[in-house]
Amino acid sequence: MSAAQVIFLLVVAAVLLLIFFFFAKPARTLLKLGVNAVAGCLGLWAANALLAGTSLAVGANAVTVLTVGILGLPGFLLLFVTKLVL
Q: Is the pTM of this model over 0.70?
């Protein structure tokens, strides 16, 4: 290989690494949000199954699932405290 080809391959490898590091954190954040949303949906389903006879059942819709997905356990508790207050 010539020197120009080696330099070209090094530049391409560097650009690919920069692209990977640029998109790695947002992808990790989206994955964490998705996992939290699924866990929150399962948690809401379980809590609603246990609290079906009371007035504390919270509906599982896009807003409640995203609240739990973004905030995690504090969001889960926030939904039930809001249900108690309202």
A: no
